[in-house]
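Appendix B, record 7
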Amino acid sequence: MNKVTKGALAAAAGAAILAGGAGTMAAWNSSTTTNGGTVTAGQLNLTAVDTGTWTWVGGTKDGDTFNPGTDRLVPGDTVRYTASYKITAVGTNLTATLTPSVGGVSGDLAQYLDPTTAGGGPGITVTPADNNTTKKVSTDITFRADTSNKDGQDKTADLSGATVTLQQN
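Structure tokens (predicted):
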């Protein structure tokens, strides 16, 4: 047998082996589309409704108006900012918390101020039942009583950076 004939026989044998091996890969297969419909995401939003008011908490001025521009704080004083917020809370399993923060408060006095929700709670829970309602939120800002010696004396803080955050749990 010459080289060309041997080569042709080898190629034919290889093709037969490959063709036979391809038959072992056969399997039945079928698919269809789901009838799932359209899914829509929920929504979580907080919008200020009014400008809010400041009052003193405790002491001889309890309940009186606090004026950040003219009144002076001392260690242990607490002032309260109360404002109304419109809640948008849409989502079947949605829970969120309204939490105050002084993270945006600036100035040398800011490091001595602690925010809490009125009464010292960790925050206000929001669920879809609160959707399209208005909640009155009070944020207490306390000048830490343990501020010692001259720390904080004659220092200022710009309270306009205080925030209320609505965050999904």
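Remarks on this record: Residues 12 and 111 are 86 Å apart (CA to CA). The longest strand covers residues 78-90.
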